[in-house]
């Protein structure tokens, strides 16, 4: 961390600042110039709040050189973290696909979709039992019954299951869930992050609609600081001024994140645009630039899905997408 | 709601659509043209998911005419909702100020600030006991102890207290809190919204950093649908590309929201910019365009505040702000 | 400027860098630490491209301490620049209003509006002769005839006139125009900025829809570097995800800009929201937080205006707005 | 276009509206309901300003069904427009690469880069002679000398050349330029668009930093309406809140635009992120999702480039990128 002081700083305030910094076990290297003096802080500055220092009268500017995250930082963990669930290995160079309906609606619907996505090569089954809906009047999911149907589908197909948790009080219901998802709207629900960090399963953490890559890593850091090191990051589109697509899929986040962290990074092309026709090209693009996996909404009858129908593809379309993703991944970017 | 059909829609699909709509008790008026046919839907369309209809092959476009919120809608509730807490009346034409530290840090700090903001005319005391911090390594608040100190300050000064809840499991601790705040990062924590809707106290609901005014009203609708009609909306800055200020305070949200809803709308100028020097001008501007109140961070020693120091003003500065807000409110916009 | 070097920088590259910097007459102060070495650059760093330095292998980070603008910088020009045009003095503490139709449509229309805005207290008349329209099929303005009608209105009412230039080849037509406007979409039309910097009249420079405050000042710097020091900055709303208003008016830009620059800052509440009903409250808010002026669209028949009807107010409404702005300005923020 | 009227519209105003619409040769189909009446407008509504209608007292809402662009609209031109320049065919299913330095700096620099990008498979040479720079103190390009050097490089290598025009008064200098570029900051410089529409060469039109896909097509429409039907669209990153990358590359714009228009769509991965290391993965992703071409910055000595060094790759790196793009394009998305 570098602290730039104003010209002629008050000596008393300066002593106060240096002793406070040194009390945290951090060394200071001073460089005095005619226009400004620069303090170089050497040591573990992760816990220093730059805002606090910037608020001081004698300080002109503060620049963090070290990142504020440690457990998630590739600098301290050069090798990719590989997270294995069933036949999938996220972070291994493969691009496994998690597929399934937005919401679990019925046994018949779920079984039918589960069988067809397995046949098409999906490695995990997704399905929402608790649904974050903008309107209180919209379908909120089957809750416990949804989870039970997912377990049934897992038993029948052998596919591990992925489902979203919205409230830590429901954690007991997720015993049989193989990957627990934290949705975009909960990315900074810090209480949930702290608690889910105690779960034994890997966590699929979605980027918030208005969150930077650094904030995504800080949220991963919350989970990791609670003990759970198996976090899969997921880019799912950010909010911009563009209205042709629901959100703007930020694919450069994949190589960028992978330079910042050792955690696997997957992509959700379904929620990003909200348009079924864009799922195939964006899945292919994601695989091409090094995505560690995909999570795709598939519905046997998208036009009558109880939620997010317009962004779901059919099992036939999914089969085509999966085949193309495989071909892309073979020659895709490896960093 | 208006549904525009494509040219020559498949008759079977059309029958399917009309019977589904009519099954919800909604009447349809058809207008057939040479280029397209338009269906006008008359009745309570609040529960209809426009995405579902838009996904149909035979549909060109859907336009909602009615808003998707009811309890919060000014169309169905023309009079302002006035929420009285202590000496403050939010929505009455006054502009009461809630003031206090970002975080409760100690008894001495809180009492000192509480007395001075009361003397300067604040009508309520704010203070964070549970703090949503981006970093897991940053100060997270005094939790239960913080709430107890707020109660103490309330007893001593008579000021009602406002504090943020992050997790419904802590609701018992908020017994003595007069207004419960839902922070920006929890605006779409729907489980929390549903549960807090059962609380007896008024709720202060902050707009999310990337949420539209309609989404803010949908979140208010969640709380109201659970039974709690006393929701105070709060604009606190949205996330944009600008980096000179931390967020961009959207003051046009005040008159805009007040045309959409009967709920009171207040402003947080402290979090919006993150810069203490902007608190006074933005407070004045908010009062000028009709804000129903303000929530302002005040700290006796902003340079050593444990969080958000750079945006806090001193008690002396607050006194000046409060006086100017009063003068602005007297001649401010009344709609 | 502060340059943070990586650990153990290559000595040859380092010598190359230091001699390059020193060749520009800038002094270097080195501070060597165990983790990193920091170079403090002292002198006029305005012309240094930070990107060039950041690209070097041996560099970890670069932080500019001095702003990249000089002529527009308040640090080098502490006093407000006051720009007097007719009876208006922008930057003097007053809040003069420029009013008139979006487009000049006819002599009758313009004269009628000019007389009524003068009666209501407007100090200048605005009117578009060249209109930047998103669609090539929309009304593009009366061009030279529009300017001639503005001159006529000026002669009759005595009000100085303001009009937008879109192409420097038309500059001869602007001989009689008192303030030349550069529109938001041309804020970074650098060729136009350079040329308009040779005009003798003050320039009204609007902030681009996606431009930061620093970029706005850099564009003002282009004009000033060409010789014209009379630049009036104008906040007119930025593009965000919010769709309830056409753009988001960034009123915190007023006090923020005024801390960065000595140039006057005015506000256009009409284009910002695109909604006539918001013009009054936002004008009042702008005056309250220290705006040096306002530019407001007024139309005698907004419902049949050839462009931007929905955001124009009537002369009667304008009279009310002007009166309220006067009262706000009297007690408004003074920095 | 669909116009939704308010309940019980004033009959006189309604007659006024209907006769105005019919005077433009458009037919009206009325659908009267108990809550609202809907007017369906059938005919060429391209020239109707929806804002004008929305401003009327009797109107609740207006929804455009037809797009406001015609020449660029795929609905009226189902086949891809293929633009052939030298050996490149944009829109043909190939993915030709335009490569070269950000700025032309010297004959030696340009010749060296031109030869190496040709050897690596680039089909056109790019180079800036007129540079849009945020700061008036930054290098502004070699102007006419730059164009002359490009011509020289064209003569020697046979590569057609691409360069940006910033001001129509310089058009004579572009006689030998094969594709004329309109930069992002000039996307809505409507005067330039109108004039460049008279040029005989194809136009490379970059998307503005805050412009929607529809606005990009409206700007293409300006050029096409002036007579020039050969417009190549270019996605180059949009401005968002994310700061890890300079802009956010919106790759979903490729398939989305290609569904809206018949014009070719290429991608600029260099400007999008501003980070050289992201050029390869993003080029691969663009080719994977169907880009009709790429424009990439290559510099023989990126660390000493006079502009945009950090985003330029070396000729060796370019060779690797080009090879990977070829392989991606072979199995890429075809719509």
Characterization of the model:
Four copies of one chain form a homotetramer. Chain A is elongated, with a radius of gyration of 23 Å. Chain A folds into two domains: 2-63, Alpha-Beta Plaits (2-Layer Sandwich), CATH 3.30.70.1140; 74-331, Alpha-Beta Barrel (TIM Barrel). Chain A is of the alpha/beta class and 335 residues long. In chain A, the strands form three sheets. Chain A has an eight-stranded parallel beta sheet. Chain A has a four-stranded antiparallel beta sheet with strand order 2-3-1-4. A two-stranded antiparallel sheet of chain A has the order 5-6. In chain A, 31% of the residues lie in helices and 17% in strands. The mean pLDDT of chain A is 92. The first copy, chain A, starts with a strand and ends with a helix. In chain A, helix 7 links the parallel strand 12 (231-235) and strand 13 (265-267). Chain A contains ten helices and 14 strands. In chain A, helix 3 runs parallel beside helix 4 (144-157), helix 3 (107-119) runs parallel beside helix 10 and helix 5 packs across helix 6. Chains in contact: A-B, A-C, A-D, B-C, B-D, C-D.
Give the helices and strands, then pairings.
The structure is a homotetramer of 335-residue chains.
Chain A lengths: L1 E4 L5 H12 L4 E6 L4 E6 L7 H5 L4 E5 L19 E3 L2 E3 L6 E4 L6 H13 L4 E3 L17 H14 L3 E4 L14 E4 L7 H7 L6 E4 L6 H13 L5 E5 L17 H8 L4 E3 L1 H5 L5 H10 L5 E4 L17 H17 L4
Parallel strand pairs in A: 7-8, 7-14, 8-9, 9-10, 10-11, 11-12, 12-13
Antiparallel strand pairs in A: 1-3, 1-4, 2-3, 5-6
Helix pairs in contact in A: 3-4, 3-10, 5-6, 9-10
């Amino acid at each position: 961390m570098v602290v730039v002081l104003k010209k002629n700083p008050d000596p008393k305030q300066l002593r106060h600042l240096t002793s406070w910094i040194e009390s945290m076990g951090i060394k200071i290297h001073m460089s005095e110039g005619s226009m400004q003096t620069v303090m170089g802080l050497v040591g573990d500055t992760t816990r220093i709040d730059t805002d606090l220092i910037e608020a001081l009268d004698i300080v002109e500017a503060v620049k963090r050189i070290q990142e504020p995250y440690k457990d998630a930082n590739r600098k301290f963990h050069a090798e990719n973290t590989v997270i294995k669930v069933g036949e999938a290995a996220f972070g291994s160079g493969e691009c496994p696909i998690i597929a399934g309906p937005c919401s679990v609606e019925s046994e018949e619907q779920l079984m039918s979709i589960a069988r067809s996505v397995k046949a098409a090569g999906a490695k995990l089954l997704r399905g929402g039992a608790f649904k974050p809906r903008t309107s209180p009047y919209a379908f909120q999911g089957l809750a416990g019954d949804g989870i039970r149907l997912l377990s049934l589908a897992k038993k029948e197909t052998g596919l591990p299951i992925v489902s979203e948790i919205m409230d830590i009080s429901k954690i007991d219901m997720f015993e049989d869930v193989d990957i627990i998802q934290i949705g975009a709207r909960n990315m900074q629900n810090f209480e949930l992050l702290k608690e889910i960090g105690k779960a034994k399963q890997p966590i699929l953490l979605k980027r918030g609609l208005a969150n930077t890559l650094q904030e995504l890593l800080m949220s991963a850091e919350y989970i990791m600081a609670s003990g759970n090191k198996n976090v899969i990051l997921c880019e799912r589109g950010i909010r911009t001024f563009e209205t042709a697509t629901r959100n703007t899929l930020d694919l450069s986040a994949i190589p960028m994140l992978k330079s910042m962290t050792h955690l696997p990074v997957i992509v959700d092309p379904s929620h990003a645009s909200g348009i079924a026709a864009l799922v195939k090209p964006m899945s292919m693009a994601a695989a091409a630039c090094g995505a560690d996996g995909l999570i795709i909404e598939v519905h046997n009858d998208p036009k009558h899905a109880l939620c997010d129908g317009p962004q779901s593809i059919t099992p036939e379309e999914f089969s085509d997408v999966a085949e193309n993703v495989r071909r892309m991944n073979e020659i895709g970017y490896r960093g």
